[in-house]
What we know:
By secondary structure, the protein is mostly helical. Among the domains are: about 25-110, DNA polymerase, domain 1 (Orthogonal Bundle), CATH 1.10.150; about 135-275, hpI Integrase, Chain A. Helices cover about 55% and strands about 5% of the residues. It contains 13 helices and three strands. It has helices at about 5-15, 30-40, 45-60, 75-85, 90-110, 135-145, 150-165, 170-175, 205-215, 235-260, 270-280, 285-290, 295-320, and strands at about 185, 185-190, 200. A three-stranded antiparallel sheet has the order 1-2-3, with no helix packed on it. It is globular and about 60 Å long. Residues about 1-25 have low confidence and may be disordered.
Amino acid sequence: MKTMNQHSVTAANRRPAPRALTPKCTSFFTFMEAQIASLQSRQRYKTASGYACALRSFRLFRDGRDLLPAELTHVQAAAYESWLRQRGVSLNSTSFYMRILRAVYNRTVACGLTPQRYPFREVYTGICRTRKRAADHRTIARLRQLDLLDTPSLALARDLFLFSFYTRGMSFIDVAFLRKEALHDGIITYRRHKTGQILSVRCEAHILHILERYAPQVAHSPYLLPVLGECDRPHTLMKRYDKQLRLYNRSLSILSARLALPHPLTSYTARHTWATVAKQLQIPISVISEGMGHTSELTTRIYLDSFEQSVLDDANRLIISRC
């Protein structure tokens, strides 16, 4: 004879379970939003920002209409690529969005949400080499000697640029997020945001002078330089970083005009310049590559090849002008 509890258990087993959102019901937008949240929780804010940008673009293309992973076909991918090009999006930016969408799609396959159909097989997902112009050592010297006492914002931009150059081309995001504990016994040790590599840089005199100059401004900040301030909320930090990056590039453009440079300085130029000057000093490619934290010497060679092409073009222009 069944007890009351046994009857209850049996009845409960016969009742349909409450409907839940199973993995097979997850839409592509929902899945991608979960990936963005996961990246943010792991403090990979720049990558999360890239994913969010790609999602906004793809959602705009779709007029906000979500779709299942299985509905993301090569026809959809090709139509999206065409839409991006019609809007004037560069080839590299188009490829950037496609690579992100492909990575998310591949994760949906791994989670069993859709069989693998390779929807991105017919769209461009490569990297088109673009000309990256380096400054020369004379420009670095002229920049250092500029009198900017009357414009503190330009002085800060100049010093951030020089700091990046002096620290083997440290990228702006790594400069901005450089915390005080990274400096120990005259050595700056930090993790690259882009690759996660641990790099160490000895503080030469020029580096120490810049840090000492801004020490009063960051007295109550966890950071070594006055870029982000004291806020410790991740979302606010990334918004502030994006704003500061725009201001930084704007200030570098003004400094370039003051120096009458043929090509404006950007946040990228300091890194490229360090690699180029190192090559001119006949430092081995392997040393330059490791110094910059590149995962492959091929990446370093792309930096240097693009500079060498610009030198050839300038030489050709000079020859033509003399004839």
